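> example.struct
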């Protein structure tokens, strides 16, 4: 079975994704394929083109890519299968680099290229999240409780299967419980609305960095180093601060540390860039045969 590494390079426009991919192509043994991926929910079917006029694709070819393509896809569950059916994926490779919106549900290495923060811009911000009104919640639950079976299921979750079995055997108890629940819901409608909850979120320009395994802040000159270091320090908090972790990653998040680097992607001798390429190389070597 053919194995190859899949590397997803994401980040905002102008952050330096193309420059990083050029360096990967120049420093990691070929063959490597590159796909620029764009999600377009207005499409009925995915589209693959060679896009000879695309300047980024030309840069990838000049840097040594063995195949390139532009893959545009709608946000559908079949996106992964559609990508593997493209002409690009027929070609042999040790690795496939995806730039932009990934159509795959799993990759071997998720990379995020971030710009240096501007001014007082921070990675995490607190935003108010409107809470559902008690009136709406009560109305929805009231409709559900019109069904006796739903009442039995609800009370069974609270009191266990023995209570549920007793309610099924004595329908008159279900009627009484239903009336009591409806009364309680009516009282809940009259309670004041809950104030909006404040939660930590990732600021818009850096959305997606929370899912990365390798985060690179592109430092174009030494004056940007301090701001880059502050962003990387904030990124460490994602897995150390319980409140931020809960708000941003939720119960599906993991606390595996990510590799976070500040690097001048335009400087081939930059130590951070060398470290980033070394991590990509290890992933490619571990997956490719």
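> example.seq
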């Amino acid at each position: 079975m053919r194995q190859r590494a899949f590397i997803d390079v994401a980040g905002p426009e102008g952050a330096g994704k193309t420059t990083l991919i050029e360096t990967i192509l120049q420093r990691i043994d070929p063959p490597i394929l590159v796909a620029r991926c764009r999600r377009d929910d207005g499409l009925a079917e995915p589209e693959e083109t060679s896009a000879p006029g695309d300047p980024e694709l030309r840069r990838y070819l000049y840097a040594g890519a063995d195949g390139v393509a532009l893959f545009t896809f709608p946000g559908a569950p079949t996106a992964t299968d559609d990508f593997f059916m493209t002409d690009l994926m027929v070609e042999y490779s040790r690795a496939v680099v995806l730039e932009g919106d990934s159509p795959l549900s799993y990759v071997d290495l998720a990379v995020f290229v971030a710009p240096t923060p501007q001014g007082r811009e921070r990675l995490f911000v607190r935003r108010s999240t409107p809470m559902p009104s008690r009136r709406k919640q009560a109305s929805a639950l009231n409709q559900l409780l019109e069904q006796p079976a739903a009442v039995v299921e609800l009370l069974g979750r609270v009191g266990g299967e023995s209570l549920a079995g007793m309610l099924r055997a004595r329908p008159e108890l279900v009627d009484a419980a239903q009336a009591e629940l409806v009364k309680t819901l009516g009282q809940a409608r009259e309670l004041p609305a809950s104030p909006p909850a404040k939660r930590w979120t990732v600021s818009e320009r850096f959305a997606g960095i929370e899912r990365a395994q390798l985060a690179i802040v592109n430092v174009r000159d030494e004056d940007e180093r301090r701001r880059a270091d502050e962003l990387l320090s904030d990124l460490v908090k994602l897995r150390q601060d319980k409140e931020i972790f809960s708000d941003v990653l939720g119960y599906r998040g993991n606390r595996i540390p990510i590799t976070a680097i500040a690097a001048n992607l335009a400087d081939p001798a930059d130590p951070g860039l060398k470290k980033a390429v070394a991590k990509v190389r290890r992933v490619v070597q571990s997956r490719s045969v």
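> remarks
The longest strand covers residues 32-39.
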